[in-house]
Design goal:
The chain is of the alpha+beta class and 657 residues long. The protein has 21 helices and 26 strands. The chain has six domains: 49 residues; 227 residues, D-amino Acid Aminotransferase, Chain A, domain 1; 106 residues, OB fold (Dihydrolipoamide Acetyltransferase, E2P) (Beta Barrel), CATH 2.40.50.140; 73 residues, Orthogonal Bundle (DNA polymerase, domain 1); 81 residues, 5' to 3' exonuclease, C-terminal subdomain (DNA polymerase, domain 1); 78 residues, Rossmann fold, CATH 3.40.50. Strands 14, 15, 16, 17, 18, 19 and 20 form a seven-stranded antiparallel beta sheet that branches. A five-stranded mixed beta sheet has the order 2-13-10-3-9. Strands 5-4-7-8 form a four-stranded antiparallel beta sheet. Helix 19 links the parallel strand 23 and strand 24.
Length: 657
């Protein structure tokens, strides 16, 4: 390759990598796999070294791509420099030298910097380009793991990663409405979430975006030990990245052990980071390009790929989208046998160049050592076929094109069981039938396979035992656990069943009000005509919603009820609960109950009421700190309302927790 050809290749690689980074960091659908990005990045870096030529926007020379985030831009107090990377363990050992080092996860999310003054959270900045970020302080309280207050009197700056777990990522995708594009991966979802404005704070909270601190950037009298700094952050209430201390000799074994754990870790990671225990020594390093030479060294796994032949494309319907899945000749990757990988959508199949079944050679990796992924097509004949009917209900399909140009396949049947996955998820949730282990992913697979069309079908899954055991992720042991959990769920409280049915406007609180007021039998009788407008907190609109739902779904309910044994079906007046007729207010931390919802559920079950504020109608205030100066404590004392600790409440109202 001539020098001129190398320079042209540098331009091509720079443009391609920056376009991929823009999509990756901007919360849009990815246009390049990490495997392909790393390969092109390494090629670009080598060409720049050989020629001494680099474009101003080269990703090799920059911290990271800074998406055009909306919001107020502010300079970082301390630049957020990137880490140098390696795929070789000897490089890690050489970097460690004779020093003690810490190994931690390289979390695959987005970096945030949080600042506190006199214990108060004063600023949250995105990383941006490392020197300037976007102020998203309006998200405080919505991002889990960022304390609103800390017990620290001075100036405190903490850097960490905003990320979303794999289970929460799957749950968010499953709950997307008709026509909404699915997120490609947890990092893509986290990026899109951080781009939301102040009007969408509830969406941020609902997506369970979390924060894990990985660096104490500054505080007055900071410990010189990196480990003690991280312990300090934990003591202040931060969620802190997992870590382990070792040295150069111990690095190979430590890295190997952590690598084995990747498949079980619930958060996305794309490598490991080693950091010096001696922070004074670490701070004496120079800055080369945009890397602080002693701030840390990132270790990225070398993706191992395998070539295999496409057997067929399986089209799996979930919610409104029919997703293509490549089924291929089994290959060994990272110690496991792999035979399936999602192809995401029609656009991705076109980008890869998928051909006919049996005539397409795929290159497969396990992305971040966890998720099987097709990264390229090596050979192909012909083109793939898009199915004309839905695999679940056999209705006609249609190709939908989003505003960004992404092509997805959809089912045209509004009543397709796969489109009601959210209803099934609510039905089996903790506030519903509470079927342990029946995740939304498992529900999606069972619905897509045609085994579950309505709620009652769950108790007839054993008829499909052999077929279920042959499905991906199921075996004899896991399927048996699933069947047992479903059988154990037959006994259910009446209020939980009503809540589980997804009746519009009727949640758990309304369900409790109905059962406490009239009981289950009267609920069925009133559902045929007289309604529930007379029940406190229900009213005409909710009553009408129940009547309309029951008229449309009575046959389905009649098929469901024989499968269940209902408990707590009588009105509260017949139960004579220990809290009957009493009103409680709860404030402060709880220790004996899991949370306030658990206490509310108990009080409700015993005929009592939990109110939000202390008034003349309050019978008891529950507060483990009876001497606190909180407004509720002061109000209770003014009104002569008795204040109980949890232990006193339990002793008086008889719960064995």
């Amino acid at each position: 390759m001539t020098d001129l050809e190398k320079r042209e290749r540098i331009r091509e690689l720079t443009e391609s990598l920056n376009a991929a980074s823009e999509a990756y960091y901007g919360g849009r659908e990815e246009i390049m796999s990490n495997f392909e990005w790393d390969s092109k990045f390494d090629e670009l870096r080598q060409l720049e070294l050989e020629t001494g030529f680099a474009l101003p926007d080269s990703p090799v020379q920059s911290v990271s791509f800074s998406s055009e985030e909306s919001g107020q831009k502010e300079a970082h107090e301390y630049p957020a420099l990137s880490l140098a990377k390696t795929k070789l363990i000897p490089d890690l050992q050489q970097w460690a030298g004779t020093k003690e080092v810490w190994v931690s996860w390289k979390l695959d999310g987005l970096t945030l910097v949080v600042t506190y003054d006199q214990g108060e959270l004063t600023r949250i900045l995105t990383r941006g380009n490392g020197n300037v970020g976007t102020n998203i302080t309006y998200m405080k309280g919505a991002i889990r793991g960022i304390p609103l207050k800390v017990d620290f009197p001075g100036h405190l700056v903490v850097r960490g990663e905003a990320l979303i777990s794999y289970p929460d990522f799957s749950a968010v995708n499953a709950e997307l409405e008709e026509g909404e594009e699915k997120f490609a991966n947890p990092r893509n979802l986290a990026s899109g979430t951080l781009a939301l404005d102040a009007k969408n704070i509830e969406t941020v909270r609902r997506r369970r975006l979390g924060f894990q601190a990985f660096t104490l950037v500054f505080c007055d009298s900071a410990p010189e030990s990196w480990g003690r700094r991280m312990n300090l952050l934990e003591e202040l209430g931060f969620s802190v990245v997992e870590r382990e201390k070792t040295d150069a000799n111990g690095l190979p074994e430590t890295v190997a052990r952590w690598t084995e754990r990747v498949s079980e870790y619930p958060y996305p990671v794309d490598g490991l980071v080693i950091t010096y225990e001696d922070t004074v020594y670490a701070s004496t390093g120079s800055v080369t390009g945009h890397h602080a030479t002693r701030a840390g060294l990132a270790f990225k796994w070398q993706d191992r790929s395998a070539l295999t032949t496409l057997d067929h494309v399986e089209w799996s319907c979930a919610a409104s989208t029919i997703t293509p899945v490549a089924v291929f000749s089994p290959v060994q990757l990272e110690g496991t046998t792999v035979s399936r990988a999602s192809l995401v959508n029609i656009s991705e199949m076109e980008r890869l160049g998928i051909g006919e079944d049996g005539k397409t050679i795929l290159e497969i990796i396990k992305s971040n050592k966890i998720i099987p992924k097709c990264v390229s097509v090596k050979e192909k004949t012909g083109v793939f076929t898009v199915p004309q009917t839905c695999p679940v209900c056999n209705a006609a399909t249609e190709v939908s094109i989003s505003s960004s140009g992404t092509k997805t396949l959809r089912c045209t049947n509004a009543e397709c069981p796969a489109k009601h996955l959210k209803r099934f998820a609510r039905f089996v949730s903790k506030d519903g039938l509470d079927i342990d282990g029946l995740s939304i992913e498992t529900l999606r697979d069972l619905v897509a396979a045609g085994f579950v069309h309505e709620y009652a079908d769950l108790w007839h899954l054993r008829k499909h035992r052999e077929a279920i055991q042959s499905m991906e992720g199921f075996g004899e042991r896991s399927s048996r656990k699933l069947f047992d959990a479903i059988d154990q769920s037959r006994e259910v409280k009446a209020e939980q069943l009503i809540n589980a049915l997804s009746i519009p406007q009727i949640g758990l609180d309304a369900s409790r009000r109905i059962v406490r007021a009239v009981g289950w039998d009267a609920f069925l009788e009133r559902s045929r005509g007289s309604g529930f407008s007379d029940i406190d907190g229900i009213g005409p609109e909710r009553s009408a919603a129940i009547l309309a739902w029951m008229e449309q779904n009575m046959e389905m309910l009649n098929r469901l009820l024989p499968e269940l044994h209902l408990t707590d079906t009588d009105p509260v007046s017949k139960l004579q609960g220990s809290c009957a007729g009493l009103t409680f207010v709860v404030t402060g931390e709880l220790y004996r109950f899991r949370n306030r919802d658990a206490m509310k559920a108990y009080v409700d079950s015993q005929g009592g009421t939990i109110a939000g504020s202390v008034s003349g109608k309050t019978d008891y205030l529950i507060n483990n700190d009876a001497q606190s100066s909180s407004s509720k404590n002061r109000k209770a004392k003014e009104l002569g309302v008795p204040i109980l600790t949890e232990d006193e409440f339990i002793e008086q109202f008889g719960i064995d927790s």
